[in-house]
């Protein structure tokens, strides 16, 4: 599946906002530290991906009940669910001038029940002809997501026979249901994840 930017204006994928707040000093400092020793955007993007994937645990894996949704909070608290981690990676990429956005999958249990929306990050490296999706949720037994621009190595390949799907759009800002679920949750225990994107039900 080829990701499709929802906004034709590439500058939208470099902008800072309340969620992807790459103007925040902590985001800028983290990006600068990751970029030390390389001026290559590809190398930096891979380091930023691996940092978010490996150094910031997924809240459900670690049992951390705290909710983070703003990129700077994810980096400060060093925790987050998939949406929050995708925000952090997008912010680190944008901080170094790499266009980045957000993508989503609809995933289910092995019997097709309990659908949830899963968050990814997409980026467009200089000279690239297409967007690439990355999944920085964090690896664990049975999950082995890796950095890949031509061949995707996502945490969860979709299973269409179970009603799972990839949403093709690359969002410049997270859709309202994603931010609303994070802001409404008091802890990861009680969080209610979206089951689909409204415009693609």
UniProtKB/TrEMBL annotation:
Cross-referenced InterPro entries: Papain-like_cys_pep_sf, Transglutaminase-like
UniProt cross-references to Gene3D superfamilies, sorted A to Z: 3.10.620.30
Signal peptide: none
SUPFAM superfamilies for this protein: Cysteine proteinases (SSF54001)
Residue ranges of domain Transglutaminase-like in the record: 31-136
Protein name per the record: Transglutaminase-like superfamily protein
Gene source species: Actinacidiphila paucisporea
High-level lineage: Bacteria, Bacillati, Actinomycetota, Actinomycetes, Kitasatosporales
